[in-house]
């Protein structure tokens, strides 16, 4: 397996620059797995494998609201309730030059691990000035290339970020963030602050769609995984096993573990909304698929060859070439099937990446 095996051609005009007018009006590509695609018959022995019989086509096209019709009574839909923080800060260096700081993780002592630009000009002991009396103190230059920084300003960190922070849109969105992004680059169920990028598969859900899913007799369960920039870092090595995935903090509450256990005991399926949920559940799953309540950090890098224990169906967006996210999706459905689905999506002019359309893998 090579990193270049996960390359594909994407016209730049298909990279979504803004969200759909309505969240659940996004398009939805449905990919139905076949035994030859995943190489393990047990991946298809789910409570709703009859969907494959009812819909013999491998790929079908829908709108996102149709997802509710695929979810069955007794299923559990697991979402990531992490909230994106306004982690991007524009500052001025002591000499007058511009600086940019992206907060990554808040440490127990109240400092932050952060990415800074220009890195060569920002040294430990320096101060970066924000507007007004707010500032960033550079505490330490870490071996990883990150800086440890401290926010200083009235009201504490949350207040400083509320005044000075910006939503950290991905670099392929080639515009400045607007007031609309403050709403639409969050899921409607976002609750626990801590992510520097949205768990984008969840951006398509509306309160009405969640209510429709529950009205069908399925449950919606919440876990938390705070998304860091490492999740989206391209895999530079041609051998993906040499790529290091940064650890991210997660929480699986008792309520989520119980909902998953109830669904499994009753023959229901576990739907993971996004790669972040998939990584969280797979990190906590026992060999028999049991998911236990837990909190910790995971650097689990799921790629082809991974045996899925907890997740039956995956809702996801379309991901960048050569990325760990695309490798995870390929591990779930088979590389050739996924790349064929991507080619079909390109041909049909689907919108890609964070604000783009979605796919579901059955």
How would you explain this protein's 3D organization?
- This protein has a nine-stranded mixed beta sheet with strand order 2-1-17-16-14-3-12-13-15.
- Mean pLDDT is 92; it is low at 36-56.
- It contains ten helices and 17 strands.
- α9 (324-333) packs across α10 (335-347).
- The chain has helices at residues 35-38, 50-54, 67-70, 157-164, 179-184, 207-215, 254-265, 275-284, 324-333, 335-347; strands spanning 27-31, 59-63, 76-80, 82-84, 88-92, 98-106, 112-117, 127-129, 135-141, 147-152, 192-195, 219-225, 248-252, 270-273, 294-298, 313-317, 358-361.
CATH C-level of the largest domain:
Alpha Beta
CATH topology of the largest domain: QueA-like
What value does the average pLDDT take? Answer: 92
**CATH superfamily of the largest domain, please?**
QueA-like
Indicate the CATH architecture of the largest domain: 3-Layer(aba) Sandwich
Please count the helical segments.
10
Major sheet strand order: 2-1-17-16-14-3-12-13-15
Secondary-structure map with pairings?
Elements: E1 27-31, H1 35-38, H2 50-54, E2 59-63, H3 67-70, E3 76-80, E4 82-84, E5 88-92, E6 98-106, E7 112-117, E8 127-129, E9 135-141, E10 147-152, H4 157-164, H5 179-184, E11 192-195, H6 207-215, E12 219-225, E13 248-252, H7 254-265, E14 270-273, H8 275-284, E15 294-298, E16 313-317, H9 324-333, H10 335-347, E17 358-361
Parallel strand pairs: 1-17, 3-12, 3-14, 4-11, 14-16
Antiparallel strand pairs: 1-2, 5-6, 6-7, 7-10, 8-9, 9-10, 12-13, 13-15, 16-17
Helix pairs in contact: 9-10
